Amino acid sequence: MTLLSVERLDARHGLLHAVRGVTIDITPGETLALVGANGAGKTTLLRTIAGAHKPAAGRIVFEGADVAAVPAHARLRAGIALVPEGRRLFAGMTVKENLLVAAARGRPGPWNLDTVVEAFPLLRQRLNSRAGNLSGGEQQATAIGRALMSNPKLLLLDEVSLGLAPIAVEAVYRSLSTLIAGGTTIVLVEQDIGRALGVAVRVACMLEGRVVLEGSAKDMTREEVTEAYFGLRRARRFAS
Amino acid sequence: MNWAIQQLLSGVLLGGYYALLASGLSFMFGVMRIINLAHGDLAIVGACLVFLLADTTDVSPFVALILVLPIMAAIGWGLQRWMLERSLRAGMLVPLLTTFGLAIVLENGLFEYFGADTRSLAPYIGDFGFDSWAINSDVYVGSLAVLIFAVAVLLLGGLKLFLTYTSLGREIRATAEDPDTAELCGIDSRSVYAIAAAISVASAGLAGVFLAMRATFTPFSGPEQLIFAFEAVVIGGIGSLSGTLVGGIVLGVAQTFGAQINPQGFLITGHVVFLAVLAARLALGGLRARGGVHRFFIRRP
Hints:
The complex is a heterodimer. By secondary structure, chain A is α/β, with parallel strands linked by helices. Chain A has a single domain, classed as P-loop containing nucleotide triphosphate hydrolases (Rossmann fold, 3-Layer(aba) Sandwich). Chain A has helices at residues 42-50, 72-78, 95-103, 113-119, 136-148, 166-181, 193-199, 222-230, 232-239, and strands at 4-13, 16-26, 31-36, 57-62, 65-66, 80-83, 154-158, 185-189, 202-207, 210-216. A six-stranded mixed β-sheet of chain A has the order 6-7-8-3-9-10, sandwiched between helices. Chain A has a four-stranded antiparallel β-sheet with strand order 2-1-4-5, covered by helices on one side. In chain A, helix 3 packs parallel to helix 5 (136-148) and helix 5 (136-148) runs parallel beside helix 6. The model of chain A has no long low-confidence stretch (mean pLDDT 89). Chain B has a single domain (2-298), classed as ABC transporter involved in vitamin B12 uptake, BtuC (Orthogonal Bundle), CATH 1.10.3470. Chain B contains twelve helices and two strands. In chain B, strands 1-2 form a two-stranded antiparallel ribbon. The longest helix of chain B is centred in the first third of the chain and has 31 residues, at 2-32. Residues 289-301 of chain B have low confidence and may be disordered. Classes of the chains: A alpha/beta, B mainly alpha.
């Protein structure tokens, strides 16, 4: 059974063809890591799945229904939540308000203010601070917490470690492991291949808008991913 | 001494009217980044609707107001859905043009139906229009002016509480900050915008009815009211509700004292104070302080 299947999805930014015929299946409870260089189309793919970007062609089937034409706010209610790149908190609102705003239109479930604070203990002291005044790690925790408040069936995480101090990355990934152990289905975009292979069950590598390598994280070596990441195999084929 | 207190009190109470008029303008700008140039004319639409009800039936303008407010809210909702939303998609300057066009359509539409007569709701509210309470033997406050001021404080305070403590209020603030991310949090930004426009236009209608009770209006009174509202908003700080009240009071007091210096001084003193505050804000970089105009031009993606 698949939770989400993306079928021959195309997405564009004007003339730029950012996502080209991507097909990916995600089963419930699985963690998929999307890796790839800057501009490979990872963020556009996540944003298209979440409804923040209109697809040019293809299908996005979530729990058996095509949601390609459904607006972003309705996809959240259906159970797809995105933690956007750069966190995008409501800077003028408090941490608590940021969390509550997503809960109001979400689905009922185990995640609420108390359980989110339990999962991200660093937020406990900061609930009434303005989100704009937080450190990077605290902001990232708030952004993930905000997505969790809607009790998503599918959590999309875009570059959660970007711009964070190593110790903050450590804290964020520790919390992620808890989520994964709890059975949350996650698609995450990660630049650090070591981390991606460590946390994910499956890895898909994107290059110039296409998925060029996909497989179980256990069977995949760093070298294979690196090769796909930089398009080395193809480069060699052109060379010979 | 009593003379100064009398002028100050009258000015503060007049400021309540300006604050009431400006609150919707400020609110719509704060949420949607739209400067609604038809705001004054929408106020006159509210006044005309209440006048029509009071004139043709025997209902009190206060009862008519309760009937007209939902109509004004519906007008705001529809305006957002069918006009502002489309023009916002074409860029943030286009709503300036469309609301300017709407202002002209409203003025001439009202002129077509009501003619050029100067009207007032004062005859329909009996003594209340000119009753006053004595503070002492020399100082009086008009009962209608006190009512208007109280309504302004209640509206601005209520709006502030609504935005801070309710779930819908949080959604409006989130959408005002970042509509794309608000969508990702499950908020239908289209309906949030429509609700904000409904609140804004209903408050304009409320202010217009009070204008018609305390003074007179014609189909072409809108633009002058828009200027007063705009001045109050700029003096108080754009997007700030408590600032709007302060801005209205400063404008009202300036006009009242100006009128004492010279009968022509009423308008000119108000404009001078507005320009002085604007110049001071620009000089001190204060436009950024409230996060209003600066945020408008810099942060919108």
